[in-house]
User: Fold these one by one.
Assistant:
Number 1:
Amino acid sequence: MGSLRQSFQYGLRSFVRSPVFASIFVISLAVGIGAATSVFSLLDALVLRALPLPHPEQLVSMNGIYRNHARVPITGPMYAELERDQSVFSGICGWSGGGSRNIEIDGKMSLVPARAVTEDYCGVLEAQPLLGRLIGPGDVQGSQASHVAVISYEMWKRQFAGDPAVVGRTIRVEGKLFTIIGVTRRWFTGMRIGEEAPGITTPAGTSQEFDGGNRTLLWLNVTGRLKDGETVERARSQLESLWSHLLESTVSADIKGQRRQSFLAMGLEVDQATRGVDSNLRTKVTKPLYLLLGIVALILLVVCVNLASLTLARASHRRHEISTRMALGASSWQAVHQFVTETMFLSGVGAVLALVLSVLGSRVLMVLLTRNESVPVLLNVMPDWRVFCFAVVVALLAGLFIGLIPALQLSRQDSASAMRQGQRTLGRGTGVLGKALIVSQIAISLVLVQMAGLFLRSLEGLRSFDPGFARVGVTEVELASVPRVGDTTDAISYRRQVLEAVGNMAAVRSAAFSSVSIPAGDDGWKETASPTTSTNAADAAAATLVEVSPGFFKTLAIPFVSGRDFAWTDDAHHPRVVIIDSLLAKQLFRSESAIGKRIRFGVQPDFQDLEIVGVSQTARIADVRDADAPMIFAPTPQGNGYATTLLVRGSDSAELTRDVDAVLQSFGEEYSSSSRTLEASSERTLVYEQMTATLSTFFASVALVVAGFGLFGLMSYAVNLRTREIGVRMAMGSQRRDSAAYSAGERDDYADRRWRWTAVRACGVAGGGA
């Protein structure tokens, strides 16, 4: 312990004498460890951290596994059977996946994310309110639910300015009065980490949208809390034994044929939910975060190699000191111990500073990752014990790597020979190892630069290629319905009137409705399509179905290969028709014409006999990255008319958006919740490529700067250590440029050693003569 204290005190005095070296060491290591810790903090908050709930290890999620291995919620009757027959959970609850609802507060209308839950939701999660109380069994009496609501902490701060008297106030939800009974705590997001808790939570029975008795509507995500002593494996075993009977007892009599078979073949997934269920954000950003973690690991490696080079150069300057110690009886271990103690101390200081930098860095990363998310993001990125341990381990490894290299090299030297040589050359001080470190950091920096170039090229390629539809000059307006009680509006007739009114505007060339935004992402209906004449599963192809109105292809400038566009006469009174893209036509019918052919899509009865009336050019409607994503387009007049995305082709001016809003207000049925150009929408889908390209370019620049400073420092030490040698050369008539050339190592080793021996002999003769 005394030896450690002495080493520490000596190292501290040494750093006081060399403040520039100590400052460069600490700042460089803080930047490297801070960058790695920032990325790890985000990964920890999103992927590794448990839910902020009591005993999250007892939580289990349950979902159905439907066609094509898709994870789906279950129906209300399925949930009721499950709750009655299970015996491994102390309680189970159900909750809706999300969605937005019209909320009116003090006469102001807004669209707010909402969630419907069963009466045991808050009890099973053991959530505690910040104000008031949460939804409980007393809020549901049989099939009737009280019109009560719980608001999130964020909505309480944003909409009610943190008013502590908010409990008891009334608001309108879809035109109905609800009483606020409580406010959730901060960071409570339910079972999904990485998404802001819905602004409002209501009992499931208060909305027809979430009908607990509907045997065909899959809407309930189920969570259970294990009893003490129970395991996930036992829960899975018991529920699987009940599952077949549960499906048979809850299947609707209206479900027949292949759809019934698919329902009865539904599987069951029972998983540990300590970290919650996968959210959209977690699914999308985990891979980019791991990629970033690899990039910052290379940055940290460059920093460590650079600091090892500087430490090795500084150790060469201390060669005589170490040799003197060893000549006086110090062991090699003591020499190594001194260097490691010094570097570990600086690494510790750098780690502390890195933790401070990581708090800011993780927040910046979260902004870059989530700036275009449609759902608000709520993520606590403050460091926890995992982040502290990560920073400590990285600091220890970095300190050992940086300190051991020069220490081991100096401990192997012959002390008597080193004392005779003094401090003549850097080349002899660092040797092959020093040169290898220099080459390594330059090589890693160039790898990072090349990676940044590839990411930038990929991003530019995604931005510049033709997706098959017009991105410039098309505005996308998201619509929300004005709440009405007993509304009997004909949706199809209303949609047609809106398009006619918008199309008559002077600045508009065409307009259409779509059931999804463009690009659709995961919003489209994905299923398998196959010719009705085929029963072979190999003839089916995965496709995405989107409902669009007449004029959709004209608005997006998607040309037809053959056939026709939809017309308003393609309604519920006529046989169902579809338009497919050329990619799907080639997969299903190869070289044959698809016009007039009939296909089936999925297992829904209404989509088992669809006539193809048109084939459009392939366009990346679903995902601009995916060139192999077949599309099927169905006419909105043959559906329920629920297409809430209005596409307007014309000028991109703000006046156009205001004029469209004025048209919508004149009808009094809907209002614009948001609007943007398709160019901006396409750019939003590339947020992860933008972030990766931007950060990789930044980190590559940092690596080059670090390597440059390292080389500058090594050259400075080279000049400092070879001052005597260079002076001798110049005294013997060498020119300045010759000394610089020798200092840079441009002569071969044999000639350099011979010249140096001659110069030393000459100096010795001259000294003897004096």
Number 2:
Amino acid sequence: MAERLGRALAFPLQALPALVAAWFCLRVAEAIHASGAGVAQSSLFGAGLGNDLLSLLRFACVFLLGALPLALVPSPRWRSAALGLLWSVLLLAHAALLQYHWVAGVPLGADLFAYSASEVGATVAGGWALSPLLGVAVMAALACLWTLLALSVRDWWPRPGVRAGYLVLAASLLAYVLLPQRFAPPVARTDADLDYLVNKTALFVDSNLAHLHGTGAALETNAHAKAQTPWSGQDPRYPFVHAERTPDTLGPLLHTRPGAPPKLVFVIVEGLGRSFSGPGARLGSFTPFLDELAGRSLYFDNFLSGQGRTFGVLTTVFGSLPFGENGLAALGDKLPRHDSLLSVLKAQGYRLRFYSGSNLEFDNEGTFLRHQGVDTIVSERDFGPPYRRSSDWGYADRDLMEVASEREAKAPAGPAVTIIQTTSMHSPFTFPGKEAWLRRVDEHLAQLKMAATPVHQDNRDIFASILYTDDALRLFFERAAKLPDFDNTIFIVTGDHRLPELPMDTRIERYHVPLIVYSPLLKAPLSVKAISSQFDIAPALLAYLANNHGLKSPQEVTWIGTGLDTEPGFRNLHVIPLKQTKTEMSDFVSGTAYLAQGRLYTIGDGMQLDRNSDAGTLARAQAQFRDFLEANGSAGRSTELRPQADVRLAGYGGERILRGTALAASAGDLGVTNLRRAAGAGVVFEATFTNHGADASPAFVPLLVITDERGLELLETAAPVRSLAPGETATIALQPDLRKVAPGSYFVSVLPSHPDTGRPLGVGQYHVETRL
């Protein structure tokens, strides 16, 4: 019996080289595709292939045991043909997962449980166009598979012994238990790198098995968070309940006019990321109108969305709500009772209007809006001639702006919240007049005086969609300026998340979006470098309305945010949970500490990241994150976020200043708190270094770096090594030698660096634009 079983196991083992060769064809196609996204194949191709082989070893037991019934087929040729059919299905499934990754921007994992079949179909169909590269690879893979399977039945083909099947089966079981799911070399820095490395079929299986067993969000730590947070409530049934004490940080920046409180207009731009919008954008700014608007606004340079996909933007921006398991809105009609900016303003006479050119049943957005009492909801079903659908997602952004402008002009007078949510900056990036906008990409690059990089060349349709949406926003604001209530309106513009299709330098770039607060009420424009997030918008606006216009707010709230920080200099007083997809939540920001999939980083100005190896900070960040995950899970299972009987509205009772609830990363104790160009002859920069810690700082070199608009370093200037006592501040002059630099616009970064390695020792200020 044992010998017969051994022969049965040896049969698929004999044919396994055919599957390896076929899988290699798909890896080559993936490598070609990833190289266009900036993934360095010279250093990562071998690691990706190694992960394929690791996955094959871990799941070899499935291949071997799954093929046992085929041993009953007497003919070797028919047995080989049956195995070929099974493995062909596997290869096609793997190719489908590759296609999903290329379209959606992230590999498919346990999201399968978080989205309905129609939503998954809409995500893929929205940008589905079978890649010619993938089509060729699939044909090559199937050809390799069937050719080698046909050869495997020949007498001269190597045949494994009886014991080989048992040995491979045992090795596979041990590998599944003992080996990690994947390896990632240190050179893999970006999300694109890490996503490329993983075997998509293995990731899909592992993620769904972890989801079914409830092990996907486990954190192993016994440390305790030291900071008080919005989820530190005394009642474990309502962990997010706390007294409303949000300070009014917006009031000092805005004029207060007698009469009705101001109208609020929110514009949530699909995929709008800081890396291609705003001053010093890494890929060049493709939003000329928003840039001009930002120059007249309160502009938040280091701002974070709460999610890496659209599923959480409404609950985050308007409710400052936790996520639950798959995004709180995913609970649909079982959404726990809560207060939001919308529901509180609705109760005090505000009318609520929402405009979108898409299907609002996706991500349950319509259900959430109806729960808030939104009076007018305009979606794709409300568009008619002369408008036409531009894609499976619905109507293009210019059509949306025209419809919203027309309806706003006819809307009744009085306080209102208007929300506009765009869709054109989403795959498949189709919209009317696309060919003309494709030509404008090259024209815009010329205006920026930037040479087209491979990123620009390979993604011209994406950059064209950004220019198109920016122009549609110009139309809306031009028409809004003619409305009678314009002078008493506050506009809030942000992105729901950063486009995943464009290459990212760091993982946090997925959440790095701009925030523009524009209003005729604004006393003066202001650029803010302090970190805030979309969780802070609702608390800040309600505090402003309560303090300046007599509105009321709940005495107890469940906000995760603590208000917008309007400090011009770089800092972070906030704790910010980040959920990349509906089922993956492994990112967390607390002060200057950033926890990303178990790795600890220090955040600097411009969302620059440096690895942090401080074990104490890592333990505290993990503990704080663990506490959030526990509270978040409780909120997702509850029917209400706060006791229904305790809902009481009261006048403003906020604190005088914004207080920090965040951990301070030890590497963040030393930092550049101010950077300016000194007046007078010559080019001299004055940088203020501060030691916020309780101990003397390590010895550091004040380092100034000048780069061009593409990030290419042109020169460095350093001051002598020094150290700072606890609480000490020092202003240091740095004068670069500009004899080899042509006059023009450049970017200056200043940081405390290690005297030997040159690596940052704390928080610097990065990419400050200057004219030399």
